[in-house]
């Protein structure tokens, strides 16, 4: 699903501090009790630092996204790769998964059955409540990026308000790593409710692990000149 594309997620008290500091230092430091395990440099001028925290449930993992201007998005998923909570930055808005989804997203079902459909609600601290319907399907194609073998998915989703008005929708491809239980962005199209789709590609380019050059970097490397010179800018979530 679109965990790789959009915002969402219980919050550690030090999350905001740990997320704001790296933009100056150029090296990501997770909150206390957390450990960074991977940095992903992606197309579209984005770098993501992935980390896990001992205070969270087993299988939970966080992602902190940075562009040329610094941090812009923070999210947490669970073992089934469900959105649990997220933060958009400047201004800070927290969004959480509503309890008891009609059809919860399931990474396990996607792996076992080759398809997973979902229906769930989201709420943020501005009072906005929305509903998301969509699905993921394994295409059967594998891709190798920076030496890492990923499985390709095809996805589509629509997010509406509680009256059914379309707020945003997206379709396209993503990639998953079965053992990591993670989604990564791919080539897709995005409609922010205007009725026309904008092409996007946030595919990973480099996977960087502890001890390797560029690990914990907060400086994106790819497509940054193109992003800065193009209008309109793609959504940062």
Strand order of the largest sheet: 12-11-10-9-8-7-6-5-4-3-2-1-13
- The proportion of residues in beta strands is over 45%
Q: What's the helix-strand series? A: HHEEEEEEHEEEEEEEH
Q: Summarize model confidence as the mean pLDDT.
A: 88
- Sheet with the most strands? 13 strands, antiparallel
Question: Layout of helices and strands, plus pairs?
Answer:
Blueprint: H1 15-20, H2 22-25, E1 34-42, E2 46-53, E3 61-67, E4 70-77, E5 83-88, E6 93-97, H3 107-113, E7 115-124, E8 129-145, E9 148-161, E10 166-177, E11 182-191, E12 198-201, E13 204-208, H4 224-229
Antiparallel strand pairs: 1-2, 1-13, 2-3, 3-4, 4-5, 5-6, 6-7, 7-8, 8-9, 9-10, 10-11, 11-12
Keywords: Signal
Protein name: DUF3298 domain-containing protein
Organism: Paragemmobacter ruber
Description:
The protein is mainly β. The protein has one domain. It is built from four helices and 13 strands. It has helices spanning 15-20, 22-25, 107-113, 224-229, and strands at residues 34-42, 46-53, 61-67, 70-77, 83-88, 93-97, 115-124, 129-145, 148-161, 166-177, 182-191, 198-201, 204-208. Strands 12-11-10-9-8-7-6-5-4-3-2-1-13 form a 13-stranded antiparallel β-sheet. Strand 7 and strand 8 form a beta hairpin. The radius of gyration is 17 Å and the shape is globular.
Give a short summary of the structure.
It contains 4 helices and 13 strands. With 237 residues, it is mainly beta.
Key words describing this protein structure:
mainly beta, 49% strand, globular, 13-stranded antiparallel beta sheet
């Amino acid at each position: 699903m679109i965990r790789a594309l959009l915002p969402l997620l219980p919050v550690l008290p030090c999350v905001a501090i740990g997320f704001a500091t790296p933009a100056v230092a150029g090296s990501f430091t997770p909150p206390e009790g957390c450990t960074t395990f991977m940095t992903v440099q992606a197309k579209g001028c984005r770098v993501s630092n992935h980390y896990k925290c001992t205070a969270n449930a087993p299988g939970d993992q966080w992602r902190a996204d940075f562009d040329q201007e610094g941090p812009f998005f923070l999210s947490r998923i669970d073992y089934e790769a469900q959105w649990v909570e997220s933060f958009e930055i400047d201004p800070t808005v927290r969004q959480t998964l509503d309890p008891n989804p009609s059809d919860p997203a399931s990474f396990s079902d996607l792996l076992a059955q080759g398809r997973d459909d979902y229906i769930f609600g989201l709420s943020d601290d501005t009072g906005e409540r929305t509903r998301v319907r969509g699905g993921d399907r394994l295409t059967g194609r594998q891709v190798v990026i920076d030496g890492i073998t990923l499985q390709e998915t095809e996805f589509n989703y629509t997010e509406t308000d509680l009256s059914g008005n379309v707020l945003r929708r997206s379709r396209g491809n993503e990639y998953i790593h079965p053992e990591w239980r993670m989604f990564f962005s791919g080539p897709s199209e995005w409609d922010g409710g205007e009725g026309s789709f904008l092409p996007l590609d946030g595919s990973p380019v480099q996977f960087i692990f502890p001890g390797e050059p560029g690990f914990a970097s907060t400086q994106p490397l790819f497509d940054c000149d193109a992003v800065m010179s193009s209008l309109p800018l793609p959504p940062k979530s």
